[in-house]
Amino acid sequence: MKRVSRKTLVRMALCGLALLLAATAAMAALPPHKRICVLVREEAAGWYREGLAVGTAETLIKQELLANGYPVVNEAMVEKVKRDKRAKLLEEGNAAAIRDLGRIYDVRIFLVGRATLARPIQNDFGTYTCTATVAVQAYSTGDAKYLLAETASGKELGGTPDEAAQKALETASRTVAKRLAGGGQANPSGAAVQMQVVVEGLSGFQGANDVLFACKKITGVSDAAVESYQGGTATVRLAYRGTASQLAEALGRQGLPITITSAGGNTVRAAAN
Q1: Domain of 212: which CATH number?
Q2: On the chain, which terminus has fewer CB atoms closer than 10 Å, C or N?
Q3: Backbone angle region of 38, left / alpha / beta, with phi > 0 → left and psi within -120 to 50 → alpha
């Protein structure tokens, strides 16, 4: 039997440690029971955001953290922090600003980041596609230590540029928020399976939206989005903890005017009545 050198054993051990650390990082969540201040700046890439809800990313992240028991500072306190002249340094990860603002405003963790919206693109049939990216970093104020970072993107369809942008921003924000709260890791053990629901014979884009909303109501579904709509056929991509048959059965109970035609692999197919 060929002997394994000590150098090879060390390399194997280091590789194993790296994989373990990577897995741990992928499942990282914010420390519980620590007062958190959420500051997320929104930017549109050179286009006017008329009709969009300002502060969407920040609001959705706060809501998810509160729902999971995290103590989040109120809006009045957030505004005070934003008006402080050191807020810009805080966004840059400046250690002195993190410590000082944490002490002044009684914050234990600063969650800072940026939400970026690309310019919506017009598709066939007058619909629009937009991509949004939300990236945040968390810092402990006691020692100005970097804790973790999360980034997620959302790509959505809409009947108008604003609708597509708003939906994309909401998707990206919710994904980041769930990961921060420990409930939305990218690839946890026993994770949901990527699937698609294809519905033919729809009379318009509203039908695609109806299918999307129905899918989002199903227990076990996450990250649902309209991937495409063309010629009356809509494709909704989603993650689901279950089989295609179970997804089809659940979709059939949502009251949509559709008939399930097949379910297998990672695809559920249906036709509009």
Answers
A1: 3.30.70.100
A2: N
A3: beta
Q: What is the pLDDT of residues 117-162, one digit of tens each?
A: 888 888 877 888 888 889 899 999 999 998 888 888 888 888 888 8
Give dist(CA 42, CA 114) in Å, integer. 6
CATH number of the domain encompassing residue 155: 3.40.50.10610
- Hey, CA dihedral for 116, 179, 189, 217, is it positive or negative? negative
How many other β-carbons are positioned within 10 Å of the β-carbon of residue 159?
16
Residue among 58, 103, 35, 28 at smallest CA distance from 95:
103
* Tokens representing residue 41 in the block: 């700046």
At 55-85, the pLDDT tens digits run 889 999 998 888 888 899 998 999 999 999 9
pTM score over 0.85: no
Instruction: Answer yes or no: do 43 and 150 share one domain.
Output: yes
Domain membership flag for residue 93: yes
Cα–Cα dist 100/97, whole Å:
5
And the tokens for 3? 């002997």
